[in-house]
Design goal:
The complex is a heterodimer of chains A (about 325) and B (about 210).
Chain A (H helix, E strand, L loop, with lengths): L2 H20 L17 E6 L4 E6 L5 E6 L5 E6 L5 E6 L4 E6 L4 E7 L4 E6 L5 E6 L4 E6 L5 E6 L4 E6 L5 E6 L4 E6 L4 E7 L4 E6 L5 E5 L4 E6 L4 E7 L4 E9 L2 E9 L4 E6 L7 E6 L4 E6 L5 E6 L4 E6 L4 E7 L4 E6 L2
Antiparallel strand pairs in A: 1-2, 1-28, 2-3, 4-5, 5-6, 6-7, 8-9, 9-10, 10-11, 12-13, 13-14, 14-15, 16-17, 17-18, 18-19, 20-21, 21-22, 22-23, 24-25, 25-26, 26-27
Chain B lengths: L4 H18 L9 E15 L5 E13 L3 E4 L4 E5 L5 E4 L4 E9 L3 E16 L7 E4 L4 E4 L3 E6 L5 E7 L2 E5 L2 E5 L3 E5 L9 E2 L3 H4 L3 H4 L1
The chains are: A mainly beta (about 325), B mainly beta (about 210).
Chain lengths: ~325, ~210
């Protein structure tokens, strides 16, 4: 059941109880909605075409989901944890996964080489960047229909929304740029040059947009107020993804997977004073990274060693290792 | 490529049954979605692997998931997309044949209009067909419509018979027969306005003879 459908059901249930109470009848309790599982870790395995599901407390694998497509790459989870959207590069399709039944319940063609998927802040739409078609497809989360497309630069690879949802940021491999899209008009209002092979984008502390130039050795920070770069940091070859966490009192800090170093680098979150604070050795070719909601753990997946590390941010130590599928690219965690 | 029409009907029927049987998993490039039936001039079919096929005049060319069909200047064509759905392509038109799979609903046929103009007529089958443009989507069931896409993506939908739900990312506009609505990037579709639909269809009539 989708977010909208559940909302409608909840509303109708409340009205029914009120009417029954007014009529003096004992109300029949509405069916209890199935809650999404909490504290789950999901890993997209590109060469296995699967999603590994891990319990966030025991770090045991609780299931492996067939994406029913090819080259499962990126993941985006609804805020309620009920639906998981997964891009499949080779299929050009998005798989929609029910996290309760742990199965793929829909497959939607968006466009050639669909790379990343990001839910809008209100979770009503899923935006999908199609590298092969230089555009974004918009999926209606309620009925899984395509609502339209938005042209981007060449080879869109990364996608995130500003905190207020007014802008979408799209990194373009072919143009070495980030497009700023006004979400009220679906038009690009600015193109920001960033560097070679820009890839991952994420919204960070104070609403700034962090991105990695995977074809180079640095990360950059965009201020959504000025729509310009306000900081860069050299981190090493092939920086991949970024998450934010705390080391005791310090933070939020940026945790950056650097594929060419087999390390996670920790950087201060202030773009005016960007420097590497800590280096954490991890597995072979780290790529995806995600922090728990408290920012005390980061989860790192390695496309070379096919596993996930759990890193305690307070001690910078790896406290657990979990085998996943082949070539894990992305990890997301439920709230 | 031309084949006898009687043989074409057998192939289309058999392949439609086959595609329905296979659609309960996930669509793929091997799933047959319909057939090209008639072309004034040339209809170009481009398969996902880049291999091309052509229909000139009446005949049959089988169409598969993710095929792109195109007409150039001076050409028009008629294709059938399963369940009795007829689609006419005006000149300078390109569309992609797709489907969406859902566990609870099976496969939904999708016509992704990339450029140009189409006429679509659907039967009274149990399932709607979705016609996508760069900025809008029409949900079509037991209806007849004409849809034109301008180079900037603006989409003009004219409903001839039945009713259609036409929507952009900013809202849905229910439409009835003899109405027109416009879909523009970044805006809600315009409220359906009365129109005379017949002149809009004139270009497609020769294909149906």
């Amino acid at each position: 059941m989708t977010f909208d459908r559940r909302l409608r059901r909840a509303r109708s249930g409340a009205v029914g109880i009120a009417l029954a109470t007014l009529a003096g009848c004992a109300p029949t309790p509405p069916p209890k909605p199935v809650e999404a599982p909490l504290n789950r870790i999901y890993v997209a395995n590109e060469s296995s075409n699967t999603v590994t599901v891990i319990d966030g407390t025991s770090f045991n694998v609780v299931g492996t989901i067939d994406a029913k497509n090819y080259s499962t790459h990126d993941l985006s989870l609804t805020r309620d944890g009920r639906l998981l959207f997964a891009t499949n590069l080779a299929s050009g399709r998005v798989s929609v996964i029910d996290t309760v039944s742990l199965e793929t319940i829909a497959s939607i063609f968006t466009g050639g080489r669909c790379h990343v998927v990001t839910l809008t802040n209100d979770n009503t739409q899923a935006w999908v960047a199609n590298i092969g078609e230089d555009n974004i497809s918009i999926i209606d989360v309620a009925n899984l229909r395509i609502l339209g497309t938005i042209p981007t630069g060449k080879g869109p690879t990364g996608l995130t929304f500003s905190r207020d949802g007014a802008y979408a940021y799209v990194s373009n491999q072919g143009d070495r740029s980030v497009s700023v899209i006004d979400t009220s008009t679906h038009r690009s209002i600015k193109s920001i040059p960033v560097g070679p092979n820009p890839h991952f984008l994420v919204v960070g502390p104070e609403g700034r947009i962090w991105g990695s130039n995977t074809g180079s050795d640095n990360v950059y920070v965009i201020d959504p107020g000025s729509q310009s770069i306000v900081g860069t940091l050299k981190v090493g070859p092939a920086p991949q993804q970024i998450a934010f966490g705390y080391k005791g009192l310090a933070g939020p800090n940026a945790y950056i997977t650097v594929g060419g170093l087999n390390k996670v680098l920790v950087a201060g979150g202030d773009p005016a004073n960007m420097r590497v604070l800590e280096e954490i050795p991890v597995g072979e070719r780290p790529n995806g990274i995600w922090a728990n909601p408290q920012g005390t753990r980061v989860f790192v997946v390695h496309e070379g060693s096919n596993d996930l590390y759990v890193v305690d941010t307070g001690t910078a130590q790896v406290i657990a290792k979990v085998n996943v599928g082949r070539k894990p690219i992305r990890v997301v965690v439920s709230r | 490529m031309r084949r006898p029409l009687s043989a074409a009907l057998v192939v289309v029927t058999a392949s439609t049954i086959l595609s329905v049987a296979r659609a309960d998993r996930v669509s793929s490039q091997g799933v047959e979605l319909g057939a090209a039936r008639n072309a004034i001039g040339t209809l170009l079919i481009v398969h996902p692997d880049g291999i091309q096929d052509r229909l000139i005049g009446k005949g049959l060319v089988r169409l598969f998931e993710e095929d792109v069909v195109k007409t150039d200047a001076g050409s028009q064509a008629l294709i059938e997309v399963g369940d009795g759905v007829m689609v006419a392509l005006n000149q300078n038109t390109a569309l992609k044949l797709l489907s969406r799979w859902e566990k609870t609903k099976g496969a939904t046929r999708i016509i992704r209009l990339q450029e140009g103009e189409v006429w679509v007529k659907t039967g009274s089958g149990p399932k709607a067909v979705e016609v996508e443009t760069p900025v809008a989507t029409a949900i079509v069931k037991d209806s007849e419509l004409n849809l034109k896409v301008h180079p900037d993506g603006q989409s003009v939908l004219t409903v001839v018979q039945g009713s259609v739900d036409f929507g952009t990312a900013f809202g849905i506009c229910p439409m009835r027969a003899n109405t027109v609505s416009y879909g523009v990037r970044g805006k809600r579709c315009t409220q359906a306005e009365p129109t005379d639909a017949k002149p809009v269809l004139a270009w497609s009539r020769p294909l149906l003879q």
